[in-house]
Design goal:
Elements (H helix, E strand, L loop, with lengths): L1 H4 L1 H7 L17 H7 L3 H13 L19 E2 L5 H4 L3 H7 L21 H14 L8 H26 L15 H4 L6 H18 L7 H4 L5 H16 L28 H19 L15 H14 L6 E4 L5 H7 L17 E2 L1 H6 L22 E3 L13 E3 L7 H6 L1 E2 L3 E2 L14 E2 L21 E2 L9 E3 L2 E3 L6 E4 H15 L5 H13 L5 H8 L9 H15 L5 H8 L3 H4 L4 E3 L7 H4 L3 E4 L14 H6 L14
Antiparallel strand pairs: 1-3, 2-12, 4-5, 6-9, 7-8, 10-11, 13-14
């Protein structure tokens, strides 16, 4: 969106409005500048786009915790030279600290920006939007709704990172006393209720959809607000916030419990209702799961991969409920696999490296986990095999690869580049001439492997899913097809709805299965009941709430892999303590021969404790405002 891209111009004009202090600043400053910002319609609209400009960048591996902090992927130490910033990598590798937190979205700093300033600017907008005399009433109504949504989203983002946060309903006056400025963190349930209230107010006046796409894509619609409301209520119903015993004794100095202390099954019913409302409305506006309908002459195997891959990279496709307008060029560079030796490593960086654990999450071609499939040789999964003719549109025929890469589901081949994998795209469209299809070679000295000291996959895998088919890398040039990275897409809501329904039923039924099966069908897999009954060593898993919960969780980790969502899911499910302790492993990428390359290497053994479920608040902020309670486990020296 051109107007959002140009908001930096306005930021320069209203210098001082976004300043940060060592404690939570909710007192507006520079009042004459505020008055100037609302003296006419044009300036008021620019201020609205300033409120948009604080949206955290979901495409940035440096700024979004989802890419590395959940250990879904890793990067090589040497690659940090091109990475630009080490904050996300250090947060995953070394861990957080309370003296100078990484990715600090509370105070700002270390690749996080102060979201309380964003909330403050939303409040300033809401308090002053009546001033422009040349503003049409219908425009004002819509803009107010957008500002309320943004204010809700910033509270939601902070809630996910920090748990209970101060609710900033309105800015304090300039005359506020020091005691008034020393705000409290509000209980999680109050924060959730406030977010939902804002979204309910916004939904009434938001447009159903965007009419003028060139100018307005990226702006908020009713579908986006309903989807965010549903995701907020799912978060509130999830184990992290719903009766979590870890935080039963976390209280502020007023004696208030900041977390709910008892499990409430009714929260899942509320979430399920909100999800159904969001899905129904989105579908009424044309939302649907993406299926490739292009005219390139492709086989069914390639079409299966394009169904999945282009659901992410087909700009503004109908599955995307909320797409980002941020530039994804760097994300594509660090995900791109080189297939020619003349493709320069400093241009095609090839750094984001999915781990072996992530790779093993994907199903077999029978649609069940690799360790459950009766027909899949799990014990010998690291053995070397030769690619058969029947797999030629997934891997290079006759190529030697690990058994781990063979007979996997289509999402595996759509999502991952690896040694021997067919790389569809990069200037070659259509697969009727098999000889023209390129494939990845990831061993040392090969195009996709370690041919320079900095830029290569440390595990032997790259997230193909994040690279548009239309993106081209030639020698020293890289031309990326800019797409609308999905913040929320329909498959996400389908799986959340299945999750919520499963939690409110004594046992799963057809209603639960159908929402998972919609997503599996697009991935060319049979339904969960048929797949588990025929192929799993645990056929009864689909018949119990606990078993179906495990299936739905894994389905989300597969379907939404590399989109930054798995990190948040594992936290809210309270499964991170187990998942984030697993060793980070990859192939022996320093080997140039097949036999030595396919040997598992442990890169890091991460640690994770209860305190890591939430980011710490900077200790200096706690010192200045003793009413703020530090997150559990984060002392002044942590």
């Amino acid at each position: 969106m051109k107007k959002i891209i140009n908001t930096i111009v306005l930021l320069a004009c209203i210098l001082g409005l976004g300043s940060c202090n060592d404690y939570l600043n909710v007192v507006p400053d520079n009042i004459p500048t505020i008055n100037h910002a609302f003296n006419n319609r044009i300036n008021a609209e620019k201020y609205l786009f300033t409120c948009y400009s604080y949206l955290p960048d979901p495409t940035s591996p440096n700024k979004s915790p989802g890419f590395l902090c959940g250990y879904e992927s890793w990067i090589t130490e040497e690659g940090t030279y091109y990475w630009g910033s080490l904050n996300s990598f250090n947060a995953a590798k070394i861990g957080q600290n309370s003296n100078n937190p990484l990715l600090n979205y509370w105070d700002g700093g270390n690749d996080g920006h102060n979201l309380f300033v964003a909330i403050r600017d939303c409040n300033i907008f809401l308090e002053n939007i009546d001033k422009p005399v040349d503003l049409e009433e219908y425009e004002k109504i819509r803009w107010v709704a957008e500002a309320k949504f943004l204010k809700a989203y910033y509270h939601y983002y902070l809630l996910r990172l920090y748990g209970p946060v101060p609710i900033i309903k309105e800015n304090l006056p300039v005359s506020a006393s020091p005691e008034e400025v020393r705000v409290y963190r509000d209980p999680v349930e109050d924060v959730v209720n406030y977010i939902v209230q804002l979204l309910d107010e916004a939904v009434v006046d938001l447009p159903d959809n965007i009419q003028t796409e060139i100018e307005e894509m990226g702006r908020v619609t009713k579908s986006i607000a309903l989807a965010l409301k549903a995701k907020t209520l799912v978060l509130a119903a999830s184990p992290l916030f719903n009766g979590n015993p870890y935080y039963a004794n976390v209280k502020d100095n007023q004696g208030r419990n900041l977390f709910s202390t008892e499990y409430d099954a009714g929260k899942w019913e509320i979430a399920a209702k909100a999800l159904k409302e969001a899905i129904d409305f989105a579908e009424s506006q044309g939302a649907e799961l993406y299926y490739y309908k292009g005219f390139d002459p492709v086989t069914d195997s390639t079409r299966q991969k394009l169904n999945i891959r282009k659901a992410i990279t087909e700009r503004w496709n109908k599955e995307i409920i909320w797409g980002s307008t941020k530039d994804d060029n760097f994300l594509q560079k660090v995900s791109f696999v080189r297939t020619k030796l003349d493709q320069k490593t400093e241009v095609m960086l090839s750094l984001i490296s999915p781990t072996i654990r992530t790779v093993e999450r994907f199903y077999t071609n029978n649609g069940v986990p690799i360790n459950e499939d009766k027909e899949w040789d799990y014990e010998h999964r690291y053995n070397i095999v030769e690619v058969a003719e029947q797999d030629r549109y997934y891997m290079k025929t006759g190529y030697k690869t690990a058994k781990l890469n063979v007979a996997r589901e289509p999402r595996f081949y759509a999502s991952l580049s690896f040694d021997g994998a067919i790389v569809y795209g990069n200037g070659v469209l259509g697969d009727n001439d098999y000889s023209k299809l390129t494939y990845a070679q990831m061993k040392k000295g090969q195009p996709g492997g370690m041919i320079a000291s900095q830029c290569y996959s440390i595990t032997g895998y790259l997230p193909k899913k994040l690279v548009a088919v239309e993106t081209v890398g030639n020698q020293g040039s890289f031309t990326s097809y800019r797409y609308s990275f999905p913040v929320i897409r329909l498959a996400d809501l389908y799986l959340l709805y299945a999750e919520a329904l499963n939690e409110i039923k004594s046992n799963p039924d057809a209603e639960v299965y159908q929402w998972v099966d919609k997503v599996r069908l697009r991935a060319s897999l049979k339904g969960v009941v048929e797949s588990w009954t025929k192929y799993s060593t645990m056929p009864n898993k689909v018949t119990t709430r606990e078993g179906m919960r495990e299936i739905i969780h894994r389905e989300r980790l597969i379907e939404l892999a590399f989109e930054g969502e798995s990190f948040w899911d594992l936290l809210r499910w309270k499964e991170a303590a187990e998942e984030f302790k697993q060793p980070i492993q990859g192939w022996n990428i320093s080997a140039s021969d097949t036999e030595n390359y396919y040997k598992i290497q442990t890169l890091v053994n991460p640690s994770f404790g209860v305190k890591n479920y939430f980011f710490p608040i900077k200790q200096a902020s706690i010192d200045v405002n003793p009413n703020l309670v530090q997150n559990y486990g984060w002392g002044s020296t942590n």
